[in-house]
Specification:
64% of the residues lie in helices and 5% in strands. With 461 residues, it is mainly α. The chain folds into 2 domains: 293 residues, no CATH class; 78 residues. Strands 3-2-1-4-5 form a 5-stranded mixed β-sheet, covered by helices on one side. The chain is globular and about 85 Å long.
Length: 461
């Protein structure tokens, strides 16, 4: 019973903090994502999944969206449950990794609590469209945990071809989920530096780490220079300058500490120097690795325009490992003269205190973020509810929708095609700002739907 207590407490905390995500709906981005995979064709999807194809946008998302869409259509509940299960699995993987690095289940549980939930990473828990980050962390943690397990067996066991293949497959899956996974080879090099040092032992890992580096280089080149590269868009265009790095570092540090723009460059430098300095002072390799994981995981987004919320979800895993190691050090130091049972009791008490402290910090902000995201999802939820009341257009027919709550016409176009499961349906949209039909067809409509206030009606003829 006591063995299960640490992780059970960490999981219970996460479930309590994140369970409201089960009641959320879709956003307009979800409709775009499903439509993209739905119309890509099986051959294109298989090629993108099996091969390193940076030109195809996050192909692993197709294995999430399409099966659920085929079975449940545009009912958001099954999508939310699936994401919630993966989030819980990520909490478990983080617990296992922190436990293995620290040698303590209590440190693992404390690390999982800190690293699995942060109110500023609201998108990971509340938005289906952020499934890419959730999947990416799942495979990053799986690859790192597998690698560490193999290396810890037999005093730095050599990775054979089977183990190397497993790590590489997990890496490719993480890359298929999101670009932030490109940091994995550097993360594993950091592990070797921290736990092995500059020794001939490097020959044991040269092949697998070199293979990961080659995969990362090919993937990065494709993302930067491929035929369908996104770097032409301002949101994805990197700026390799110290100024951009400092801007994003301050922005994400502000999100982690709920300080906004109040975090200055000195505070940011102090944060990272402090994380590494305290770990070195305490001689905690797990804390050093946690700080390195977080710093490296931020790098893929440090040179692009800052994003809201979700980019800190993956780096928080590293900060959780650091925090778990730090708190466990305090517990060990305070109970060094006592029996093991007393130490476990002290650790359980610290776990309870940590739960209370984390809830006091995150719960009010989580409620605020939930209201914000729920409001942002309102237009998509409203359109889906109204489409359920409408007659079904003829297969391959034409449909005009007048008005609606969206600012962009393609949101309505995606919903109409997906809702009626008809890729041949020709859809056009008009709005007061754009009275001319935009979309697949511009005249001779078989059916016309019109928004009257907040309701969708069939236009009488």
């Amino acid at each position: 019973m006591l063995r299960a207590l640490p992780f059970s407490a960490a999981l219970a905390y996460f479930v309590f903090m994140a369970h409201t995500g089960l009641t959320m709906s879709f956003s307009a981005d979800d409709m775009m994502n499903i439509h993209k995979y739905w119309t890509a064709g099986a051959g294109r999807l298989v090629k993108a999944l099996v091969l390193i194809d940076p030109s195809f946008y996050r192909p692993l998302g197709s294995l999430f969206y399409l099966p659920l869409y085929q079975v449940f259509g545009l009912s958001p509940g099954p999508y939310r449950v699936t994401i919630f299960v993966i989030l819980c699995l990520n909490t478990y993987l983080l617990y296992r990794l922190a436990t293995r690095l620290s040698g303590s289940r209590w440190a693992g549980a404390l690390g999982a609590m800190v690293g699995s939930f942060h109110a500023s990473a609201n998108g990971a828990y509340l938005s289906t469209a952020v499934v890419y980050d959730v999947l990416c962390l799942f495979f990053l943690l799986s690859a790192t945990l597998f690698y560490v397990r193999v290396r810890q067996r037999g005093r730095g066991r050599l990775l054979g071809w089977r183990a190397s293949a497993v790590v590489m497959l997990l890496f490719v899956a993480a890359l298929d989920a999101k670009e932030m996974a490109v940091a994995l080879p550097v993360v594993l090099v950091a592990y070797e530096l921290i736990h092995g040092g500059w020794r001939p032992n490097w020959m044991r890992v040269a092949a697998p780490l070199g293979g990961l580096a080659v995969i990362a280089a090919i993937y990065t080149a494709g993302k930067l220079f491929g035929a369908e590269s996104l770097i032409g868009l301002d949101a994805y265009k990197p700026e390799w300058t110290p100024a951009r790095y400092l801007i994003t570092a301050r922005y994400y540090a502000g999100m982690m500490f709920f300080e906004g723009d109040a975090v200055g460059p000195i505070e940011v430098a102090g944060l990272w120097i402090g994380l590494f300095g305290v770990a070195a002072l305490l001689r905690r390799k797990d804390m050093l690795f946690g700080a390195a994981f977080a710093l490296i995981a931020f790098l893929p987004v440090n040179f692009m325009l800052p994003r809201e919320g979700y980019p800190i979800y993956i780096p928080m895993a590293g900060l959780g490992i650091w925090a778990g190691g730090f708190l466990w050090t305090l517990i060990e130091t305070a109970t060094s003269w006592t029996a093991v049972g007393v130490r476990d009791g002290a650790a359980a008490a610290v776990l309870v205190i940590a739960v209370a402290a984390l809830m006091a910090i995150h719960y009010p902000r989580e409620r605020e973020q939930e209201r914000f995201v729920r409001h942002a999802q309102g237009p998509t939820r409203q359109v889906l509810e109204e489409f359920r009341k409408m007659p079904v257009p003829a297969r391959g027919g034409s449909l005009l929708v007048r008005g609606g709550p969206f600012g962009e016409y393609w949101d309505m176009l995606f919903i109409a095609k997906l809702f009626y499961r008809d890729p041949a349906l020709r859809v056009a949209i008009t709005t007061p700002e754009h009275p001319e039909p935009r979309g697949d067809v511009h005249e001779n409509f078989d059916q016309v739907f019109e928004w009257k206030g907040e309701r969708l009606v069939v236009e009488s003829r």
